């Protein structure tokens, strides 16, 4: 059975709410029923077949072709199955997803992986601000699963993050790991200002020396036995994180943010 | 236009009508006697089999003022879960615990309410409160102006100024802030909090001003009495939520020396400290005290289970309770160097012993206070529960078996600590009409509202009789506001704008001689800007002011 493919007919002026088009909601629906689903498009509601050409049958394997950054809420609350986005994704990609995989060939907008619970979210390009963060006002961001970004990410990556891991091959913007409760963020490139701002617990694993606030204390250099185990867990990813050359076990350790409970750590490769 | 409401079963306690079938005629916004000249009726509604009451009045609900916006800012998730779309006649907004102003107005009207009173208008923030109420459609509104923790009053009391001077200050503030009553919140406590006091008993001195809450209450209650303001001093007592505060409340009742006093959200002030958990119901003693002291009125501030947010001027008590915040975030702040506020989100849980007993205590008070003219139906919206839960509360009061079914589901230890199961009383429709209409209008001092006799404004709510009182009160068939049909089948069909109710007691203008230098030196705005002009209420073309007579002047 071929993948269920939504090919965007033409770019829209207004944003499209894609949250109805997730595997578990489409399961058991025939093409006519899927075509008749109405999507919010700006102020109006439009049928799926007005906006997309629909081909294929397999609702557990969805492809969104010619996608662009106006397509919001792709894979919202996804619970099993896979969604492959060919092109860019809008805001709230994979928001609150529970399981399954999402792959984006281009860039993702704001709040990708926001409050995600489990599964794998892979972005080949860049991601916007609040990657794996919490919705405004909420106290917990990403709670599990893996977010893998091959490009750069915006500000506030992992804001209020609670559990899970965010792997970034490129650079991270300012306030990376802000208000983090727990979990792991690994950044191969550079990080911006205010790294780990008000983080309580959790780990920031860095390849390059960051600019740290005064509320982080140098705890000396360490050889950490858990790091090889952590790197071994990355082996299955299609990523530079899986390269055997990427692994290390010797780090400089900084504790903070002392302006909070201060049980977080920043580990920098040496 | 002459409107005839035909054959409804009318409950109009203000006129002593308890469930009689009769016709009501409305012309030019007011109820009139049956016309004798044979004029044709322009519009007739057949209300046979329906229950007709005047529009309900919420005498204590936080719908305006700075703390509402703080709560909205603090809890975007609460709004996110309840989005309200625009329709051709209504505007979009958000609902739940602290709804947007427009949605608050629509939802009140859709429940049959036609007037709401904001009980904590900080004088220095009154403009904000009036603007929010000005954006609250359909319902009438008004506010109680908050005094008692303001430095100017405390300075006057420390300086032993005579009652006349204080009366002038109270009347001046009431005129400047455009209120209909005077409210005291934790008398002097908000101020004492700023001098690092974390509790203040009725006879404990403010460490800076050496004034006690009892003195403040007596002084202000006397001012309200001497100025002839109909609404008694509206008192949020000391020690809110503290186990054992029952004694404080009883002392407050005794200490007011027979002056009229309204004790608000009294449920939060009726706690004993007996039992294994050192927390027990004081409802019986409080109800007894209310029954004995005819000068006392109260609204309950019932809690109902679920997520809400507590927003109060009482920063002292809110700060003490901040660790119970759920979700875990809260705000306590000073307001313009002259008042304070605390906003703490709360989730009341039926399986939490304290919450469950609070629920039972509120209901006990409702059922044990004998005179429905002196007890009012409130949840202290949003502090005990959002106002949208009123129909559920009415069912709890009117339906004993439903009440006992609910009681059986709460925390078992709380069930053992309450006498609720043994209370047989069920409220009648007439008593509900007293509590939510006639009594409320009387206690606030509203002329021409809360009654269905000729001459009153035609605020009328029509329900379909239903044994399930929650369903009945959730969705009225018709709601008329000033004679216009605004809600049909529980949906807004026309958006009108209610008036703002105020009183204008006289005062000696020379008070401004003392106030002006005080404003210049200490406050964030000048005296001239502090005073709200009539135009500010009405210049948008939809607001208006209605001044009510003082006692003895009617």
From TrEMBL, chain A:
Coiled coil: none annotated. It comes from the Bacteria. GO terms for biological process: methanogenesis. GO terms for molecular function: formylmethanofuran dehydrogenase activity; transition metal ion binding. Pfam families: GXGXG. Residues 73-210 form the Glutamate synthase alpha subunit C-terminal domain. NCBIfam families: one_C_dehyd_C. This is Formylmethanofuran dehydrogenase subunit C. It comes from Methylomonas denitrificans.
Automatic annotation (TrEMBL), chain B:
SUPFAM superfamilies: Composite domain of metallo-dependent hydrolases, Metallo-dependent hydrolases. Pfam families: Amidohydro_3. InterPro entries: Amidohydro_3 (IPR013108), Formylmethanofuran_DH_asu (IPR012027), Metal-dep_hydrolase_composite (IPR011059), Metal_Hydrolase (IPR032466), Metallo-dep_Hydrolases_sf (IPR050378). Residues 44-493 form the Amidohydrolase domain. This is Formylmethanofuran dehydrogenase subunit A /formyltransferase/hydrolase complex subunit A. It comes from Methylomonas methanica.
């Amino acid at each position: 059975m071929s993948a269920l493919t939504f090919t965007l007919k033409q770019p829209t002026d207004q944003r499209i709410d894609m949250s109805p088009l997730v595997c578990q909601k489409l399961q058991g629906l025939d093409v006519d029923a899927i075509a008749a689903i109405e999507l919010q498009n700006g102020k109006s509601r439009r049928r799926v077949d007005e906006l997309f050409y629909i081909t294929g049958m397999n609702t557990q394997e969805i492809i969104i072709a010619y996608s662009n950054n106006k397509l919001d809420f792709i894979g919202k609350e996804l619970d099993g199955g896979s969604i492959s986005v060919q092109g860019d994704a809008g805001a709230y990609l994979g928001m609150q997803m529970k399981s399954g995989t999402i792959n984006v060939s281009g860039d993702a907008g704001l709040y990708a992986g926001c409050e995600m619970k489990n599964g794998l979210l892979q972005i080949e390009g860049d991601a916007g601000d609040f990657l794996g963060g919490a919705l405004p006002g909420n106290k917990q961001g990403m709670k599990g699963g893996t977010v893998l970004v091959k490009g750069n990410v915006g500000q506030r990556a992992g804001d209020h993050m609670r559990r899970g891991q965010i792997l970034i091959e490129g650079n991270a913007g300012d306030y990376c790991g802000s208000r983090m409760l727990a979990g792991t963020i690994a950044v191969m490139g550079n990080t911006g200002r205010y790294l780990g701002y008000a983080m309580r617990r959790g780990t920031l694993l860095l390849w390059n020396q960051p600019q740290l606030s005064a509320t982080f204390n140098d705890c000396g250099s360490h050889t950490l036995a858990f790091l090889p185990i952590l790197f071994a867990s990355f082996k299955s990813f299609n990523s530079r994180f899986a390269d055997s050359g990427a692994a290390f076990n010797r780090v400089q350790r900084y504790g903070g943010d002392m302006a909070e409970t201060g049980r977080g750590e920043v580990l920098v490769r040496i | 236009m002459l409107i005839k409401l035909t054959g409804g079963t009318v409950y109009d306690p203000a006129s002593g009508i308890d469930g009689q079938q009769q016709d009501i005629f409305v012309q030019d916004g007011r109820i009139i006697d049956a016309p004798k000249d044979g004029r044709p009726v322009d519009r007739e509604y057949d209300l046979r089999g329906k229950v007709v009451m005047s529009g309900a009045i919420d005498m204590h609900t936080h719908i305006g003022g700075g703390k509402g916006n703080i709560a909205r800012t603090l809890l975007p998730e609460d709004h996110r879960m309840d989005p309200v779309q625009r329709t051709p006649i209504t505007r979009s907004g958000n609902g739940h615990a602290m709804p947007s102003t427009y949605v608050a107005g629509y939802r009140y009207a859709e429940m049959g309410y036609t007037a709401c009173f904001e009980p904590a208008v900080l004088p220095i923030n009154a403009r904000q409160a009036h603007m929010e109420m000005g954006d609250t459609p359909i319902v009438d509104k008004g506010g109680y102006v908050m005094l008692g923790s303001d430095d100017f009053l405390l300075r006057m009391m420390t300086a032993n100024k005579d009652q006349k001077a204080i009366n002038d200050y109270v009347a001046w503030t009431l005129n400047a802030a455009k209120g209909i009553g005077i409210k005291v919140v934790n008398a002097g406590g908000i101020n004492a909090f700023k001098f690092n006091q974390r509790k203040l008993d009725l006879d404990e001195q403010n460490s800076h001003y050496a004034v006690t809450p009892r003195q403040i209450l007596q002084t202000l209650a006397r001012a309200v009495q001497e100025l002839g303001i109909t609404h008694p001093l509206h008192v949020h007592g000391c020690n809110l939520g503290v186990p054992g505060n029952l004694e404080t409340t009883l002392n407050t009742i005794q200490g007011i020396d027979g002056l009229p006093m309204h004790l608000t959200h009294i449920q939060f002030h009726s706690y004993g400290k007996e039992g294994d958990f050192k927390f027990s119901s004081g409802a019986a003693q409080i109800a007894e005290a209310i029954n004995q002291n005819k000068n006392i009125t109260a609204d309950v501030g019932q809690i109902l289970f679920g997520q809400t947010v507590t927003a109060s001027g009482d920063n002292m008590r809110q700060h003490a309770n901040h660790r119970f915040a759920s979700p875990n975030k809260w705000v306590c702040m000073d307001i313009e160097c002259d008042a304070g506020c605390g906003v703490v989100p709360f989730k009341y849980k039926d399986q939490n012993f304290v919450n469950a007993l609070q629920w039972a205590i509120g209901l006990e008070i409702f059922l044990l206070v004998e005179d429905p003219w002196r007890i009012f139906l409130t949840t202290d919206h949003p502090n005990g529960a959002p106002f949208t839960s009123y129909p559920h509360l009415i069912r709890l009061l009117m339906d004993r078996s439903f009440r006992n079914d609910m009681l059986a589901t709460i925390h078992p230890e709380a069930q053992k600590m309450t006498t609720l199961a043994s209370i047989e009383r069920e409220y009648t429709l007439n008593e509900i009409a007293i509590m939510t209409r006639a009594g409320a209008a009387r206690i606030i001092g509203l002329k021409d509202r809360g009654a269905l006799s000729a001459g009153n404004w035609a605020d009328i709510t029509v329900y379909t009789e239903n044994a399930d009182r929650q369903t009945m009160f959730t969705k009225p068939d018709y709601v008329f506001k000033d004679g216009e049909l605004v809600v049909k089948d529980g949906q807004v069909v026309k958006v009108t704008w209610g008036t703002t109710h105020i009183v204008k007691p006289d005062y000696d203008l020379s008070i401004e001689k003392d106030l002006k230098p005080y404003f210049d030196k200490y406050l964030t705005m000048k005296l001239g800007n502090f005073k709200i002009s009539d135009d500010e209420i009405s210049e948008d073309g939809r607001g208006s002011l209605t001044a009510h007579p003082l006692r003895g002047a009617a």
